[in-house]
Amino acid sequence: MAELEIIAEGLRFPEGPVAMPDGSVILVEIAAGRITRVMADGSTQVVAEPGGGPNGLAMGPDGKLYCCNNGGFNWVENMGHLMPHGQADDYSGGRIERIDPATGAVETLYKDGDFGCALRGPNDIVFDAHGGFWFTDHGKNRPRERDITGIFYAKADGSHLEEVIFPSENPNGIGLSPDGKTLYAAETYTCRLMAFNVIAPGKVDDMAGPGGPGIPLYRPAGYKFFDSLGVDSAGNICVATIGESGISVVSPAGELVEFVATPDIFTTNICWGGEDLYTAYITLSGTGRLARMRWPRPGLKLNF
């Protein structure tokens, strides 16, 4: 396995990396409320400043960036790590934003209450081949209570938002199988990787398992918590893992293929770039770094 190379430092809890054709990576800095481009040489440029808590990020069919904004966290620093700590005192509400990467213009596409949906802390996002997108709502933690949330499907033109899966236990990472027929979601505190059978755009089989639509696929032992995920070209689900940190690579059959260790307890995201999609970009959020490495398999080419 190749070694990690640090390409950017000093970021404020980076997540949601999107590899761009020019070799740069656009990501969010949650604690700074901004979207940042990291150039191939490690220099940075501010793309947009939506405020709140920009979290998951994906490129849409219109060339715009779609951002899950969780509304903001409070933060603590401990042992050299920056860590989210409950709902922000100035929490601005959960929302989905559309961002023009050329101008930095930010548009609120969906907000809490639209289409009768509650958006507490939108977290991660993936587009399907039809141009719609799935996203998770991780919810918010407050003293002695935690939101019960779900998994949503929305259209990119702002015309439809639906909570398709409810309840879901603190869902975080989300992704689709290469054929688009399986939706994967990682739960943070339960540390479960769940699978859902997609039967139509924005629809899952409600009777797939004895407990409803979700089929538990994998759950590791040890002091681990799941964050965001990416899917590689072989269909493996690569889940960023907090605590005993690294990337848990899980086969579609629910077997651990490998565990790639990383040097940050808050390892949160992975994506792939480069012409051959063998370059993995990994966010080391607690220490504010973006890393890259040569991955043993290419990543799955995204729909947009």
TrEMBL record:
Gene3D superfamilies per UniProt: TolB, C-terminal domain
Limits of the SMP-30/Gluconolactonase/LRE-like region domain: 13-284
InterPro entries, sorted: 6-blade_b-propeller_TolB-like (IPR011042), SGL (IPR013658), SMP-30/CGR1_Lactonase (IPR051262)
Cleaved signal peptide residues: none
Name this protein carries in UniProt: SMP-30/gluconolactonase/LRE family protein
Organism field: Stakelama marina
